[in-house]
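pasting for the record
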Amino acid sequence: MSQSATPPQQPQPQPEAQAQAQPQPVDGNPYAQQPGAVPPSPAPSAPYAPPTPPKNNIALGLVTAVVAALVAAGIYGVVIGTTKHEIGWAAVGVGFVIGLAAGKLGGRNPVLPVVSAVLALGAVYLGQLVGEAMIGADELGVNFSKVFFDHFDVVQDAWKADADPLTFIFFAIAAFAAFSGAKKAAL
């Protein structure tokens, strides 16, 4: 009888053996040495992108400055009302916030620093009136809104009686801070 001999078959390599046969990268990244891999793009030549110039949107700058003036006046008034003192750095903050808001959103329009300074004067005055009304309401034991809205003339008279040269220095500081803040923020 003749038997046909089948040739001996070669053992098929296991997938694990194939993975072990390929050289592994030193840094532990298994995809680093794959053929056909795309190399990473080179780094840009500039270390950073230049900042985009602010937009010249005077309407947005003015609206933002007015809103900032009202908010800052209210906060300044609360500070005066609770401490019962005018605080110079708070007046600087009022002016700077108004100028910053106008310059950042309004751009380099030359009207914005001037308007910011005028709004800062109004905001400091309004804040001082709010502070006077808070102090008066506290002394009388009545509601702030009753004193501020129903007896506004009395609040103004109390402000005039309490005004001293330092009060007007705070006005000047706030206007300067608003003017310079608007110019610096627009750069």
